[in-house]
Please model this.
Amino acid sequence: MTHKKRPERSSLFWRLGNSPQPFSAISVAKHSRIRNAVAVDGVCPYCAVGCAQKIYIKGGQIVDIEGDSRSPINEGTLCPKGSNTFQLTVNPHRQQQVLYRAPYSDHWEQKPLGWAMERIAQLTKQTRDAHFVERDEDGDLINHTTAIAHLGGATLDNEENYLIKKLFNTLGIVAIENQARI
Model:
């Protein structure tokens, strides 16, 4: 049996000592989107477990979020919701302005953030002033209101919860709860 010279081996590619590669020149030129990105430590914003995340930033923009393998809590893994954190932060459909619907209105209006913050402060003060009880029927000092309640989310960390508790206790609010505890 005679061996014929394989036609592909007579090409210039083979004669220059090259061998075929399982990837193209275009694949070689590609690189990871986190190359040259700065990794910042973060905590998953969803539940109260507190899974550690690495947030990669390049040019002032978030380019990737993944689990942090240094964490004893999640050891680099994330649940489906935690894996979706990147889409939560970098989503073209995410609401970026305050929407307000006046009482009995059938539509939403866009309002500036400053207006919304001032409105919340005014309504909180009005409600507190209208329902604040300084002393009970026996004359004991109680300084509270039961007309306002707060339900915090599990995405708040200990420091934020501490500040919220201090603020609302100072306002006399009694019903202060957190979703992670319920």
Notes: The first strand starts at residue 38 and ends at 43.
